[in-house]
Amino acid sequence: MTSFVDRHIGPRPADIEAMVSRVGFDSLDALMAAAVPAGIRTQQATAVARIGQGEHEVLGRLRELSERNTPGVAMIGTGYHPTLTPPVIRRNVLEDPSWYTAYTPYQPEISQGRLEALLNYQTLIGDLTGLPTANSSLLDEGTAAAEAMTLVRRAVRGRESAPVVVDTGLHPQTIAVVATRAEAMGIELVHADLSNGLPVDDCAGTIIAYPRTDGAIVDPRAVIEATHAANGLAVVVSDPLALVLLSSPGSMGADVAVGSAQRFGVPMFYGGPHAGFMAVRAGLERHLPGRLVGVSVDAAGRPAYRLALQTREQHIRREKATSNICTAQVLLAVAASMYAVYHGAEGLREIAARTHGHAATIAGGLRAGGVELTADAYFDTITARVPGRAADVVAAARAAGIHLRPLDADHVGVSTSEATTSEHVIAVLTAFGVDAQAGTPGSALPTALLRTDAILTHPVFTEHRSETQMLRYLKKLSDRDYALDRGMIPLGSCTMKLNATAEMEPISYPGFAELHPFVPAEDAIGFIELIDLLEGWLADLTGYAQVSIQPNAGSQGELAGLLAIRGYHRSRGDVDRTICLIPSSAHGTNAASAVMAGMKVVVVSSTDDGEVDLDDLRAKCEKHADELAAIMVTYPSTHGVYEHGITELCDVVHAHGGQVYVDGANLNALVGHARPGEFGGDVSHLNLHKTFCIPHGGGGPGVGPVAVGEHLAPFLPTHPLHPDAGRREGLGPISAAPYGSAGILPIPFAYIALMGADGLTQATSVAVLSANYVAKRLEEAYPVLYSGDHGLVAHECILDLRPLTKAAGLTVDDIAKRLVDYGFHAPTMSFPVAGTLMIEPTESEDLAELDRFCDAMLAIRAEIDQVANGDVDAQDNPLVNAPHTARELLEWKHAYSVAEGVFPAGTTDDKYWPPVARIDQAYGDRNLACTCPPLEAFAEA
Fold first, then answer.
1. 706-720 pLDDT, tens per residue?
2. 194 and 132, same structural domain?
3. Do 333 and 357 fall into the same domain?
4. How does pLDDT run across 73-120, given as a tens digit for each residue?
5. C-alpha span between 168 and 785 (Å, rounded)
6. What are the CA-CA distances from residue 44 to residues 431, 496, 672, 754, 878 (Å)?
């Protein structure tokens, strides 16, 4: 039987032999010996060497771990609720590779389905919050609130010293995440019970709970007005299901609204991944963090979707950015948006009313039984006062299979949800020791705050009521997109490789998917064991002492690592160590993360061959010797080269008192061959959505664990509700849940268990081989910009297109869009060098697909030469008009033939047809529209 390793790695043994020969070596081992510097190669066997099993065994182990969890019926609340995912959405979005293997929609012409789904999400959030512009998702509620805090600071000019007032009625994890961010950025927080009014006369902003964590609904209008009178902006943290029935934050004057869309059809997943949201009033659009989908037009004047206002983002603004958001939660935002499409306004109102009705029934029964409640107005959560009996009530409910929330010795919280039944209501009342039949339900929603305006009036939310309509809508959108299920996505720095079905399957196991993040530790022992094993494996593979998987994106892993460095220096009294050195070629998140960690960025130059300039490094270290906190360096370099100077770089920084942060974005070129923790790194973040097979999901989810040396272990993220009491005090949380996006951790667990150490090492070797094979095949047509020893690259290569641009007037965009006609997603454009393409083929693509891509690139080079030689019109040629749509065939207007335009060499009858022509990016920014356009827009076009 073929092993999993053989199926994960694309090239067959005979293909590998031929590829190695083409690159100029006798064996794959010889290639790796030449590529990886001897000074960094690992010499130690890893504990991971003891694993490596077949799919049946690994899936059996994961099922056994899942069954050791006890999800029960979660009525804990705190922002996480059971939900009923419509099977058509679960099967055709969350479990469909055409959605989960897609990349971030930076190439909008081949991402129209995803972009429409995200526009639906933005429209949903805009309608519920009553604010005109929502982004296309954030990481969770806690980080969304923290992003709102920094938005307030940058939007209110000249108010840097004014405090931000945080409502103590927020969920505890939200308060904690905001505090972690604020402390690092030097933002003063004032914590206050805002149900008693605003306690200060001057502030930059307020963060208001609506409803509160204890369930109480308090009218926020007075605090919003007071905030504006104090020259601040008002942020409202809200529950989207509650907003179906309650007045929107926008209608009450709020400037910003944030929250989590988890309960719109996304499983709790033991804390994530879930789509956070943020919406803002007019005038704040350009301050929005994350991604924003907008409507523009294509070359034919037809409406088309694309990412708008990208100059706001960290990859553009770098150290001037006030957000480092990179990974969003696209897949989960799509699921939440489709939940709203599936149910429509009427369905959501019925769900919200039923949820509230169950809470009211419980409240009525408790009052009839003599139990006091802490609030008269609530939506789905009540808090009962049971002096000295809280533990007994919670234990009785748990014995009946229900998890309640113990607030303290005297108070118990109960939250209802879409999944609550009459049987659950009876069990809860019985646990409190009251007559389950007593009391009469009624409405506890305050009349003055009832919603009166319409929501979800766009036809997309009314036209898909039957299963047939919904299925076809999802299929129509996925067919518009290009994902790994269609072909190669050769993106440098992003590692778009196989996400095997066996790895994906366990995330749907009920013991993983239906677990609330704050159940008692003894009810999550299977998940905790999985996490402990995974953290140990990752530490082992990277050479570090300890790993935390809490950061729920690579950008958050960067922040966690830098905060660990900051905490370490401060623990030693080195409070002045605030300088972070960053090479000029670094990822944009590096600089943004450094600023968010309270550091100042100093750029280190690169040499002409793309390596870190060690002379400039020494000079900068000498200049800032007393202030040096860290250097952030990507290895292999952002230019795709194994630099020999990495160990010397580490030595120089350490000699000047700094710490070395090795960005793990390119770890797919190291696993099994070199370990950052051995060759000088003090801390790294790892992109599990790159090297370890969590799929990109169209731009999220991701996980960015942080790995540290022993001296930094005390400064890893903590969480006030962590199941391990020893990890509740310290740095504070980076994300809202103790284990971040735990729900997708079975994927890398399965990948490592299936591959074993030998398989992981082989995967790295073949990834490096594939990159060098592509570089060798294309080097005469497109110069490879950087290479290391023996003319070799690491796992990616950069093709220099600038000479061709000069000769033919064609841009990197023209070549990227022309690749669509050949059936490929474009490589990474103009990063890290403008006018280049960065290609990373990964180990998953077989030789036939690699050759198909190379053949396409060579054919495009021939087309470029025709333009340069004057053989075809410089203004009307297949490149400048790419990509070509099927609609153009109805009225072909080009000087070249249909075959040359839409059926270039190598394409087949089942070629991918882009749904829109090239999109006018500038038009969409000049005419910003970020909600679903009326159907008339399409009819007119």
1. 999 999 999 999 999
2. yes
3. no
4. 999 999 999 999 999 999 999 999 999 999 999 999 999 999 999 999
5. 54
6. 55, 29, 10, 21, 53
Query: 617 in a domain, yes or no?
Result: yes
Q: Are residues 370 and 334 in the same domain?
A: no
Contact present, 931 and 285 (Cβ < 8 Å)? no
Least trusted range by pLDDT, from 410-424, 584-598, 880-894: 584-598
Q: How far apart are CA 541 and CA 721, in angstroms?
A: 29
Confidence of residue 585 (pLDDT cuts 50, 70, 90): confident
CB-based contact 397:510 (threshold 8 Å): no
Which residues make beta-bridge pairs with 661?
632, 683
Same domain, 332 and 348: no
- What's the rounded Cα separation, in Å, for the pair 241 and 118? 19
Give the whole-angstrom CA distance, residue 400 versus residue 432.
Answer: 12
Task: Give me the long-range contacts of 625-628 (CB less than 8 A, separation at least 24).
Answer: 625/656, 625/657, 626/576, 626/577, 626/657, 627/576, 627/577, 627/578, 627/579, 628/577, 628/579, 628/581, 628/653, 628/656, 628/657, 628/658
Nearest in space to 284 (alpha carbons), one of 123, 148, 128, 106: 148
Q: What is the mean pLDDT of residues 793-808?
A: 96
Instruction: Give the model's pLDDT for residue 865.
Output: 97
> Which of 426, 449, 472 corresponds to the end of one domain?
449
Q: How far apart are CA 254 and CA 154, in angstroms?
A: 17
Residue 285 structure tokens: 């659009």
Sort residue 231 into left (φ over 0), alpha (ψ -120 to 50) or beta: left
Whether 190 contacts 164, CB under 8 Å: yes
Q: Structural domain tally of the chain?
A: 3
Handedness of CA 905, 906, 907, 908 (dihedral sign): positive
Structural domain including 427 reads 344-449
Q: 102 near 118, Cβ under 8 Å?
A: no
pLDDT at 49: 59
* Cα–Cα distance measured from residue 11 to residue 16, given in angstroms and rounded to the nearest whole number: 6
Final residue belonging to a domain, choices 700, 721, 744: 744
The Cα–Cα gap between 488 and 844 comes to: 9
Q: How far are the Cα atoms of 105, 602, 686, 817, 913 from residue 101, in angstroms, in the given order?
A: 12, 37, 19, 20, 18
Collect all residues with Cβ–Cβ distance below 8 Å to 812 and sequence separation of at least 6: 801, 805, 829, 830, 835, 836, 837
CA angle 2, 3, 9 (to 5 degrees): 100
Instruction: Write the CATH number for 712.
Output: 3.40.640.10
Question: From CA 71, how far away is CA 511, in angstroms rounded?
Answer: 6
- Backbone torsion region of residue 509, taken as left when φ is above 0, otherwise alpha when ψ lies between -120 and 50, otherwise beta: beta
Hey, how many other C-beta atoms are within 10 angstroms of the C-beta on 802? 15
345 near 456, Cβ under 8 Å? Answer: yes
Q: H or E element: which one contains 120?
A: helix 112-129
In terms of Cα–Cα distance, which of 910, 121, 826, 914 is closest to 480? Answer: 914
φ and ψ at residue 565, rounded to 5 degrees: -60, -45
Convert the pLDDT of each residue in 384-408 to its tens digit.
999 999 999 999 999 999 999 999 9
H/E run at residue 373: strand 372-373
Residue 886 falls inside a structural domain: no
Q: What is the pLDDT of residues 723-733, one digit of tens each?
A: 999 999 999 99
| One domain for residues 629 and 525 | yes
Question: DSSP string covering 599-626, please?
Answer: -EEEEEPB-TTSSB-HHHHHHHHHHTTT
